[in-house]
Each structure stands twice: as structure tokens, then as C-alpha cells.
Amino acid sequence: MLHTPSGGAGDGAAATDTALMSIGTVLNVLREEFPEVTISKIRFLESEGLIEPQRTPSGYRKFSAGDVERLGHVLRMQRDHYLPLKVIREHLEAMERGEAVPLPVLVRPRDGEEAGQEPVSEVPAVARIGRAQLLAAADIGERELAEWESYGLLTPVEDGVYDAEAVTVAELITELGRFGIEPRHLRVMKAAADREAGLVDQLVAPLRRHRNPQTRAHAEARTKELAGLTVKLHTALVQTALGVRLP
């Protein structure tokens, strides 16, 4: 739960300033639930119009408790429901208008199903996203997507269908592009990610092949745990190599 400092007996302006948080404080609050969130990610969500923090006369961002709650809501919809930013923005705008709107869900009818029918599958319907949805979510055209695919940065799981995590990958590629990092420069990152994924898969494979159904079910949880550890190690190694410390 978020706790913000309360103002004392001073004037109203001082109390308001005390209640506002710096981006570093916001990062620490969010990392309790979202350990992989970064300042860059928060700035990106701001640039996409999903939050509008206040600014000091010197230009520093100041976040209210409402801003932090909104950020958590956005990150939760991305993590748990694989929703693209465009859909999240429309959902939040509808809520602000006082409309009682259900949480949107990305559904792709499976073979043999009619549109509108509830899919029958053990895999959540939100785990996949269509090509048109990906283009809209990343705000890119076919040319950019084709270039990213040529470098292996994005790969469809089948014709015209992508893993929903492709939305996050596309957003990060776009964000890195603002710093002059081109898709061809990211091939080394993709190669490193593939090697790390291969190591995790090698460790979890025996669990997936086990006769015990509970052991096989445990494989997914173990995969997530190992993936989280490899990401943290990768981050620490990059920080060490650059001689910097990320917030």
C-alpha cells in the first residue's frame, strides 16, 4: 500500500510539496510490485500521455499519490493482461469519464471458432496479439516491423500472430531509437537473450518431461523464477561494466 507523507502545520504550499514524490521515490514504491520497472519506463509512459506529473520551476518531475496509483494500474494491465498502451489509454480515459467499463481483453478466435464465442483453451486468450494490433500498439508501420523482424528482434509465433510480450519489445525498441540506437545494433542483445533463454530452458526441460503432472506444472513457475534471476544478473553485469548504478 502506498503511504505518502502528510503536511504539518505549515502553509498549504509546503504541505503540497511534501506530498509530492520525486521519480526516484516513485521507482522505489513501484519496484515492490514491479521489480523490473525503470526510470526510463516511467518517462516513456509519460511521453505516451498515460501520466502527467507536475513539474517544478527547474523542470523536475513531481508525482502525486494518484500518479503512482495510475502507474501501477498501467503496469498491472501490461503485465497481467498483455494490453497495448493504446488500449490501456482508452480504458483509462473511459474510467475518467465515469463510464463503468470492463477491463478489455485481447481475444483471437482459434481455428473453428466463430468471432464472439468463448475460446476453450488452457492457454489464456490474451497471450497472443495480431499483427494489426501490434502495429497500432507500437505506433509503427509495416516497414519498421519488417526491419525488426529481419534482425530477429520480433518473430511471429505463427503467421500474423505474435506473443503479447512483443508489444513490450516494440515499445523498448522505439524508446532506444530515440537515443540513436538502431535495430541492427540490438542484434547483440537478442543473441544474449537467446543464450540466456536456452540455459533456462535446458534447466527446466527435465521438469516438463516428468511423469508427475504437478512437477510438470511446477516447470512454469521455475521458468519464471530463473528468468527473473537471469534478468537481474544481466542488469548487474551491465552496470558493473559501465561503472554506473541504476536507480
What do you see in this structure?
With 247 residues, this protein is mostly helical. The protein has three domains: 67 residues, Multidrug-efflux Transporter Regulator, Chain: A, Domain 2; 71 residues, Multidrug-efflux Transporter Regulator, Chain: A, Domain 2, CATH 1.10.1660.10; 65 residues, no CATH class. The chain is 55% helix and 4% strand. It contains ten helices and four strands; from the N terminus they run H-H-H-E-E-H-H-E-H-H-E-H-H-H. A two-stranded antiparallel ribbon has the order 1-2. It has a two-stranded antiparallel sheet with strand order 3-4. Strand 1 and strand 2 form a beta hairpin. Helix 9 packs antiparallel against helix 10. The radius of gyration is 21 Å and the shape is globular.
